[in-house]
Specification:
alpha/beta, Immunoglobulin-like, TIM Barrel, 4 domains, five-stranded antiparallel sheet, 26 strands, 26% helix, 20% strand
Length: 581
């Protein structure tokens, strides 16, 4: 078997495989690369030593059986016998469901999560979006401090378990999206800088030195990241990737890394005959991210729309701290703006940033499905001091209104696990760092952050306490009892409507028309022949919407069919979906 590694500064490289040492030779055709042959089989343990250093795991390791600090293991991807004859599922018309493997079930494994996929198929989502799976120290964590970007966290079950999960999802008709982190590497167990210039001091990020995308040696670093992305899509039959915080990818080259990545993914899609897509997390509000390469954009297929979330959250909760300030002031007007224009900050002044921010979307060129709309995410729940969900902040009626707005808006909807039944469990920030100094620094930093906003130290959960993770696990007995069962039925009803009515998946952003009354606290929007109305006030409201005799398709509380006057009479804190033929 041939082994190879990029180590441009090394004077000597040796391979240690199954306790046998082999000297590697420089590759005459690829500068900085070393290669050599050794006897190996599935599961063989190996690593590389540079000069006189200790044996380290392979930067392109496919498996880390003993965690990030242990030796790598050989994986033969051809050995897995796939069951599902899967042709893929595209992003247009999709509904995503964000899932954290470690807390989706108490067991916290991929196999246990696969056993619960039937719930999602019945719910009506189309794609499961897995939070990061790359190895990280310890057992439990969010996954955003992963290393070994080609491997699967062993406590989750390793590479074979991920294949079983994907296979089961595909058998049920569910696509799988994986969250990947290219903007930084984890602080513990990361040996990439020993091998080469994977990081650069040319730029700095919130995590320190930047991933090297444009400094000397960056060709191989970009190839490393793109190779990892393609490996998930090819070897594990993943259907799409969510790219974490792409605004932190600092790249001054004429060919931006994201454009290079999107080109490679589109080429793989053409090769495999499966629709593959990239979804960015970005706070830039820059249309170029999701504009096609042919039109001068970077060619990503979609991005998260935090503006919609912020407008919805601030309107429902009244919260105005931090980045919610502008949205709270705009209230229903801000929500209306996002429903018709995609973004709230489209060149407007951001008081949080103390500058103007964003630029307008061209609604004739950018389809609505290229923006993901949501009322909750791992970020927006877990980065609260106590990890409280939206259902813990507002009444059941207002939470039902949020669901109606998310699942009928002109965006690709995304749910956060447990949201569909108003889970009573929080989702808190938890870590399992094995380095005591790092663990203490994270604990103190977390509490210091919230102390600045008036929180008492004892009220902020300790990320390192195993109970913090345990509290965050879903309680699967909840969906079977009230009030959770009623919420679950509401989500299923709305999702069934979305799949049944073409107007609700129409990608034309410009076709959405909105009306609202700030004083009476109601908002309504129309998409084709479908009208969605919510009353956020506690008192009943009469909405003069001009829809005589419209049919009621779904309602959180009983609603009468509009009479000849075309007015919709809504109980307080309720939502309705109507159709006018």
């Amino acid at each position: 078997m041939q082994f190879e590694v990029w180590a441009p500064q090394a004077g000597r490289v040796t391979l240690r495989c199954d306790d046998v040492t082999h000297a590697l030779e420089r590759d005459p055709e690829r500068a900085g690369w070393w290669r050599g042959e050794a006897e190996a089989r599935e599961g063989s343990r190996y690593g590389f030593a540079l000069d006189d250093g200790r044996v380290l795991p392979d930067p392109r390791s496919r498996r880390q059986p003993d965690g990030p600090d242990g030796l790598s293991a050989v994986v033969d991807h051809e050995r897995y016998a796939w069951r599902a004859a899967w042709q893929g599922r595209p992003l247009p018309g999709a509904v995503l469901y964000e899932l954290h493997v470690g807390t989706y079930t108490p067991e916290g494994t991929l196999d246990a999560a696969a056993g619960r996929l039937g719930h999602l198929a019945e719910l009506g989502v189309t794609h499961v979006q897995l939070m990061p799976l790359c190895p990280f120290p310890g057992t439990h964590g969010w996954g955003y401090e992963g290393v070994s970007l080609w491997a699967v966290h062993e406590p989750y079950g390793g590479p074979e378990a991920l294949k079983r999960f994907v296979d089961r999802a595909h058998e049920l008709g569910l696509g799988v999206v994986l969250d990947v982190v290219h903007n930084h590497f984890g602080p513990s167990g990361n040996y990439l800088p020993v091998f080469g210039p994977y990081l650069t001091d040319t730029h700095h990020t919130p995590w320190g030195a930047a991933v090297n995308l444009d400094a000397p040696g960056s060709d191989e670093v970009r190839a490393y990241l793109i190779g990892s992305a393609l490996a998930w899509l090819r070897d594990y039959r993943i259907d799409g990737l969510r790219l974490d915080a792409v605004h932190a990818l600092v790249d001054t080259r004429a060919l931006h890394f994201l454009e290079e990545l999107s080109t490679a993914v589109d080429a793989l899609a053409a090769e495999t005959g499966r629709p593959l897509f990239l979804v960015a997390e970005s706070d830039l509000n820059d249309p170029r991210l999701i504009t096609s390469r042919a039109e001068g954009g970077l060619g990503l297929h979609a991005q998260w729309n935090d503006d919609f979330h912020h407008a919805l959250h601030a309107t429902l909760t009244g919260e105005s701290q931090g980045y919610y300030a502008d949205f709270a002031r705009a209230s229903l007007g801000g929500l209306a703006k996002t429903l018709t224009g995609g973004w709230f900050h489209d060149g407007s002044y951001s008081s949080f940033r103390e500058r103007h921010h964003g630029r307008p979307l061209d609604r004739t060129r950018v389809a609505g499905h290229r923006l993901l709309g949501y009322g909750q995410t791992h970020d927006q729940v877990g980065n609260r001091a106590q990890g409280d969900r939206l259902s813990a902040l507002v009444s059941p009626g207002l939470a039902a209104c949020a669901a109606a707005l998310v699942l009928t808006a002109p965006f690709t909807p995304m749910l956060f696990m447990g949201e569909e039944w108003a889970a009573g469990t929080p989702w808190q920030f938890f870590t399992d760092h094995t380095d005591p100094e790092l663990a203490d620094a994270v604990r103190r930093g977390r509490r210091r952050e919230f102390a600045a906003h008036g929180w008492k130290e004892e009220d902020v959960p300790d990320p390192q306490d195993p109970a913090t993770r345990d509290r965050s696990c879903l309680d699967w007995s909840e969906p079977e009892r009230e009030p959770h069962a009623r919420v679950l039925a509401w989500y299923r009803e709305l999702l069934a409507l979305r799949h049944r009515l073409p107007d609700l998946t129409d990608p034309d952003l410009a076709d959405t028309r909105v009306a609202y009354d700030e004083e009476l606290r109601w908002i309504a929007f129309r998409r084709g022949d479908v009208l969605v109305a919510v009353n956020l006030a506690s008192e009943p409201a009469v909405l003069p919407l001009g829809v005589p005799h419209a049919r009621v398709l779904a309602a959180w509380e009983p609603v009468e069919t509009p009479g000849a006057d075309g007015a919709v009479r809504l109980p307080g804190e309720s939502a309705v979906v109507l159709a006018q033929d």
